[in-house]
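Try this one yourself first.
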């Protein structure tokens, strides 16, 4: 029996594709049943990006025998009040959260929930504003306002256009030598961005053969791709809902960088930053130092937290 360690590069239900990174030599594997039963509240016990131990039988079939400890992961809860959660990706060096101002219109509370989750698990996040050629001339004020909200909060905002090539070289350079998660709502241009980074890829079709992944789960399409310029990208399906997991209500503000900075001046500790007198966060909102859109997202997360509990 042969044993080894590899990274999960595609997840299709109970079937996986592995590669011993940095080598890109992909092979199929299945999951040992005992592991599947351990995480009853997680819909997928293994995620793309997971490092796993595997064994190869005499007939050449590979079985995943152990999930190695994760450095980090991005996880979401369904917004239908389900207790189950889903791991989007594991062992990520940076998350690129792709949004478009219009077509589809950006939902700031949705974006803020992902940013909180990245902060919770220590994953650096960059906001990628796509399709800027479509609306910068028509709505320059909206572009500037969006950029100001998130740069003032402490996030990088990269403006990109697949059509004109703006920002693509910068994004490609930033991805080198890293495992990069690309995530966002459906229709924001995520797959087109990945293809622009490496024209040899086609995330919509799948650069990795699915010959071993027959069955009803082949549309999951959580998949990692190697970039010809260096590094890897994880493409995830468009996300419709993003509920928070593993964060206490009183700690949510800590993952809003601008609120955390301001909270040092609050009169009371702890402070919920909702009704207390002498709250430095509310005062910063009133002065325009914290964007009201971000503060409203925070209040929405407090309400969401009540539902899940």
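Now uncover the answer:
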């Amino acid at each position: 029996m042969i044993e080894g360690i590899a990274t999960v590069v595609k997840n299709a239900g109970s079937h996986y594709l592995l590669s011993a990174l940095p080598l890109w030599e992909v092979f199929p594997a299945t999951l040992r049943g005992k592991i599947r039963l351990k995480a009853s509240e997680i819909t997928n016990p293994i995620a793309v990006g997971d490092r796993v131990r595997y064994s190869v039988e005499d007939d050449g079939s590979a079985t995943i025998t152990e999930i190695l400890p994760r450095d980090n992961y991005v996880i979401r809860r369904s917004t239908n009040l389900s207790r189950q959660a889903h791991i989007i990706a594991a062992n990520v060096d940076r998350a690129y959260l792709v949004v478009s101002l219009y077509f589809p219109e950006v939902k700031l509370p949705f974006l803020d929930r992902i940013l909180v989750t990245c902060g919770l698990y220590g994953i650096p996040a960059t906001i990628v504003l796509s399709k800027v050629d479509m609306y910068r001339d028509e709505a320059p004020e909206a572009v500037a306002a969006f950029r100001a909200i998130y740069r003032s909060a402490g996030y990088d905002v990269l403006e990109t256009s697949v059509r004109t090539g703006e920002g693509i070289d910068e994004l490609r350079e930033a991805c080198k030598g890293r495992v990069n998660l690309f995530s966002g709502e459906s229709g924001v241009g995520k797959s087109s961005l990945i293809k622009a980074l490496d024209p040899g890829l086609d995330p919509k079709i799948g650069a990795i053969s699915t010959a071993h992944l027959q069955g009803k789960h082949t549309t999951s399409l959580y998949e990692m791709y190697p970039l010809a310029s260096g590094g890897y990208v994880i493409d995830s399906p468009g996300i419709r809902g993003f509920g928070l997991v593993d964060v206490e209500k009183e700690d949510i503000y800590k993952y809003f960088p601008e609120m955390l900075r301001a909270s040092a001046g609050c009169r009371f500790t702890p402070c919920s930053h909702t009704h207390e007198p002498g709250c430095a966060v509310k005062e910063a909102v009133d002065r325009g130092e914290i964007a009201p859109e971000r503060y409203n997202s925070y209040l929405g997360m407090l309400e969401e937290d009540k539902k899940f509990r």
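Discussion: The radius of gyration is 21 Å. The chain has three domains: 2-67, 73-235, 249-308.
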